[in-house]
Each structure stands twice: as C-alpha cells, then as structure tokens.
Design brief:
It is a single chain. The model has no long low-confidence stretch (mean pLDDT 92). The chain has 320 residues and is α/β, with parallel strands linked by helices. The strands form 3 sheets. A 5-stranded mixed β-sheet has the order 3-2-1-4-8, with helices on both faces. A 5-stranded mixed β-sheet has the order 11-10-9-12-13, with helices on both faces. The chain contains 10 helices and 13 strands. Helices cover 36% and strands 23% of the residues. It is globular.
Length: 320
C-alpha cells in the first residue's frame, strides 16, 4: 500500500491563526482556526497552535505527516526559525517557533514571512499559477508584500524580507511602529481602516458603524467598516475611499518598481475587492508611460484566506 503524505500549513497573523491539512498537489483537505490572543503570552499562543495542528491533522486518518510550514506575520528569521515580532504579536520576541514545533511533532518545519507564504501559495496553485513574475500584497492586520520571480522569493540582504508595506506614501501621515510616518501599512492596512473608523464615530455617533458595533467603538473592525460601506454609510464610505486611494498609490509604486505579470491581492481586507479595485485600476491607468502598467493583471487571491497556509505548506512540499 502506498503511503499518503500530508503537510500542515500554518498561517499566523496578528489576530488569528489558521491551520490547514494540505496534500502534495496543493489540495486543502481540512482547516481550523482560532484567535491567537498574543497578549496572553507566547506559551499560551504556542499551545493554541499545537492544539490546532493536532486537531487538523486528525482529519488525515492514518496518513503520514511529512512536515509543517509556517507563514507568520513579520519580522521573522527563516534561517534561524525565529519569530521576532512584538509589533503585531505583542511579546513575541525571539520565539523559536521552528524548534518548538519540531520538538512537539518530530517532523521538518519551515518558517516564512506570511506575505511570502501567501505569494508562494498563489504562485503554486492560485491566481498566479503558470506565471514567471508575481507580486503579492497581503492586506490584513498589517500590510505585507512579496515578489516571486521564476518560482523563488526575492529576498534581501542575509535573506531578509523586503518590507514593501513600510514604504512612505505621506510623510505627514500617522506614525507607525516601523519608525516612519505615513507608510503604506499605517494608511491602508486593516488596522489603519479600523482606527480611522473608530476615530470617525466620535464626530459621527449616528453612523451605522456604531450601530453594527453594538455601540462600542472599540469593536469596529474592517469587516464592520466594509459592511457599513456596502450599505451606504457615509462615514464608512469615506474611510474606505481614503484607504483605497492609498492602497492604489502603493500598488502603482510597486508596478513601477517591479512590473509583474500578475499582482495578487489577499488578506482579510480584500474579502470585499469591489471596494478597492476601481481605485487601483484608475491609478494604474495613470502609470502607463514608462512601464506597461495597463498589462499588469490585478487579481483577488484565488485561494482567499487560505493563500498563506497553502503557501506555507508549499515550502515543505517543494523539499520532498
């Protein structure tokens, strides 16, 4: 009897952790997720991840676990296997996630930045399947970017992950933990959208946003903002329009830098692409003189919220 191999893919974000059971052809067989609650400490967070891995792999029956791939919100050190991110994972500094998973499950473990993992997932079996140059933008709690060239992630010095999400769009904009003001992440990420909406309801308490949040401004998140915008709420629409303009400007810059064949948009904010794509297409139409921007295909991630965990699994599959 031929032994069947499966890989576990983990997508660790600043808000949630998702775990998937993936076959060697990129098929997603089972998934589970839960809030990571990073503020409760590293050990509690690792415990949640361990529990999800065990629960998810149980769906494989008697198959063999070939390895675990982790895509984590950065900064991460893939070579040493450390997460070093006190920014969107408070308290997670020099966390040896690879060693801890290897110790617990006795299989090879690989670590990538979550944006790199999402890009690899879309390159492998998603919207970018078959292309040579793919740029991925993940818009979630933060804003991550990655460039896949001929099947490999373009890396920086010492294997560092280039942080496109922190290039500056507005020097007078809000401060970011990266040390800059008005960087892309601080203007167009899910956190930025939620923050602007929360500030906005102080002046507009009659907004549908507050009603959808049961009167608690602190509960307003990107999902509530999108829902209110789609229902015509003026404050929500203005917040989304501002974020869309900044997202579009950043993408226009990326196209000028890299001119990919496909630019893939993933992450929770892009669950409502109709709120953002018109602004992006309009921005690209203005940048057709020196680069062929009009030929760049901007596509929602075909793998949706699962791009990161499938890509994380791919980091293991390609070594089998």
């Amino acid at each position: 009897m031929v032994e069947v191999n499966f890989v576990i893919g983990i997508d660790l974000g600043g808000t949630n952790v998702r775990v998937g059971l993936v076959d060697t052809h990129g098929g997603l067989m089972a998934t589970n997720q839960c809030p990571i609650r990073a503020e409760e400490g590293v050990e509690a967070g690792l415990g949640r991840i361990f529990d999800l891995v065990e629960k998810t792999f149980a769906a494989s029956g008697t198959a063999r676990l070939a390895g675990i791939g982790v895509g984590a919100t950065g900064p991460v050190d893939p070579r040493r296997g450390f997460i070093n991110n006190p920014y969107t994972l408070p308290g997670w500094e020099r966390v040896p996630v690879v060693a801890r998973l290897q110790e617990r499950f006795q299989v090879p473990v690989r670590l990538e930045n979550d944006a790199d993992a999402a890009a690899l997932g879309e390159y492998w079996v998603g919207a970018g399947k078959g292309v040579s140059r793919l740029y991925a933008v993940t818009v979630g709690t933060g804003l991550g970017t990655a460039f896949v060239l001929e099947g490999e992630i373009l890396r920086g010095l010492d294997g560092a992950h280039p942080e496109g999400g922190h290039h500056v769009l507005d020097p007078s904009g809000p401060p970011c933990y990266c040390g800059a003001r008005g960087c892309w992440e601080s203007l167009a990420s899910g956190s930025a959208i939620a923050r602007q909406a929360q500030l906005g309801v102080e002046k507009h308490p009659d907004s549908l946003l507050l009603s959808l949040a049961s009167g608690d401004a602190g509960r307003i998140d990107t999902q509530i903002v999108a829902q209110a915008a789609l229902r015509g709420d003026s404050l929500a629409k203005s917040v989304v329009e501002a974020a869309a303009e900044y997202l579009a400007l950043g993408i226009a810059n990326v196209v000028s830098f890299f001119t990919p064949e496909v630019l893939v948009l993933s992450g929770g904010v892009m669950n409502t692409p109709q709120l953002f794509l018109p602004a992006i297409q309009a921005a690209l139409q203005k940048h057709t003189v020196v680069v062929p921007a009009a030929r760049v295909r901007v596509l929602p991630a075909a793998l949706g919220d699962f791009a990161g965990l499938i890509g994380a699994a791919y980091t293991v599959v390609k070594t089998l």
